[in-house]
Design goal:
6 copies of one chain form a homohexamer. By secondary structure, chain A is an all-alpha fold. Chain A has 6 helices and no strands. The first copy, chain A, has 2 domains: about 50 residues, no CATH class; about 80 residues, AhpD-like. Chains in contact: A-B, A-C, A-D, A-E, A-F, B-C, B-D, B-E, B-F, C-D, C-E, C-F, D-E, D-F, E-F.
């Protein structure tokens, strides 16, 4: 079993590779209200889960973007993971494809709201979506 | 714009490549109660959406598996798309990875129920999951 | 304000007109575990809400069928309200239309599961759906 | 089968009758990021589905309002369809009835949020709700 | 059975004890668009349900906070009930514990959004969360 | 930070106190398909989260029962946690109260399905619910 230090270090590295500085900002912002929860994001969500080798990082981001678009309850996190997808090598077109596929599985409103979130991210980064 | 015949033919081909005979069985079974809906599955869901070139077929299946695992409301369709993932080249390990990642984004019960569905599919196909 | 006796009597009448004997069976079956909850179904859900004159009974059933199909978490109750729609004058075709419209608003799996529920009800009643 | 031109023309007509200019604005706004998706809204959602004769337009809007209120994840679209209901002949009272019925099927918070959306629409249009 | 006057009076007392003046403000604000619904909040939700003796008031608030955090569709109501928990004797730490437990049952994004809502309430009240 | 051995041992102890032998059976059953996920249930869900001292064990079970009843997507897990509530000192009446409170926050169908799950558990254990 990994030591706690290893889990945390692995998590920090994966968090940075996916979310850049914004993920660390979320983690920092949670430390005042729930410091252990902030640790869980690093050590469990990014250290234990998102660092696993079984899926390529871009595919993991597609899976997260698909799920958050379908659920429709976490717009801020969806935007973090659209940034994350771009950070690990997804193209805007691949992210857009994933979101509009959700029209079939979760309905048109879910897909429209996902596209609105994606457009905001693409505009922030000066990217063209089409 | 594609002709209706093209949309339908494209949809049938994609439906077969992803779901084999089981998808056609679902479509057939819906013809008694909602024949136009059966057509929409073929022409829209598979013809217009799932046939698009912008994402590889295995990645599209990962996106669908992620979404249906996270939603937790469509076990039958989740199993169809786990079969579909295997049919288009996903390994059991990749599908399992996608499902257990959902523990982070949709909670442990959603991931457990996804794993139960995956195990049923893997057993049906005589596959080992680990 | 209505007396408790009025609320209850109004609820019983509406419950019977919508669900026939099956709704009363559900209410009876809940009396062992949660008798007050059984009363709430009658006095509040059917007495206060479903008895209101502002929407025709068939339209109210369409609204309930739409919501339960979209949510996808209450198959037993969806079937009760498909029966209810038929009991108050909806045709099988109208119910089917409502369910397949949900493909747009909640995704194809939700609509498919709604159609499966509807077909079971139509078969129980010896109805043709198309 | 309808030609693509027919599907599109039917969709545009239904989109206009339900959403007036606001639906077209949504479709236009999506053309930069996902032009095919914008077409799907017109040709599939409005052309294939919402144009069907099997349910009256006001009842279709009630079904959509019920579903979006119950899901609680698409406030912008709920407001579009409350406008849509009013555009095709629903009264404010009928829309309000539909939303508050959702307290029974999806809980009081869902209904409250639906009522807040409805009030915003009614105020925009200078309508009294009671 | 309780008289309507008793139900209403019980509901007003429980509404005030849980939500202070803010709950009454919500009820008042709904009277223009749905006066009967405003009565249902008082007489049914608070009078019939939340006034019951079978669970301590702080535990009832924990149950509501857990459910609204998990659903993720009712931020305004979640904040009302975080206030409510504090009003009936929950500590900020107990509320935070409940919310972060939801990471296990509904995913990390649901828990993060719940924590953001809690922090806003704690800041409004000048409370420290840790 | 806790050592991995401590996290696991703490998790096993909490898992046993809440779920008795049934939780271990779930964990065992997942080892063939996702052994690391089985570890996460023990070390993260039960070791890191459910073992925390900030909420009494019965209140934690009430929070879980509330959330799973409201979500309506995890009947098997809901039953595990109704057993868990009884195992750590909740009375059947307290569990029933929590579930029927969900009628207000997630709708009557969610509460009915929760009551059906509770009745099954109470019957398995030879308990009277009222």
């Amino acid at each position: 079993m990994a030591t706690p230090e290893d889990r945390y270090a692995t998590g920090v590295a994966t968090l940075q590779s996916i979310t850049g500085s914004s993920g660390e900002a979320v983690v920092e912002s949670l430390k005042d209200i729930a410091p252990d929860f902030a640790d869980w994001i690093v050590a469990f969500a990014y250290g234990d889960v998102m660092s696993r080798p079984g899926l390529d990082k871009p595919v993991r981001q597609i899976a997260t973007i698909a799920a958050l678009t379908a659920l429709g309850t976490a717009t801020a996190q969806l935007k973090v993971h659209i940034h994350g997808g771009l950070n690990v090598g997804c193209t805007p077109q691949q992210i857009t494809e994933c979101i509009l596929q959700m029209a079939v599985y979760a309905g048109f409103p879910a897909a429209i709201n996902g596209l609105v979130a994606a457009r905001e991210v693409f505009v922030e980064r000066g990217l063209s979506a089409v």
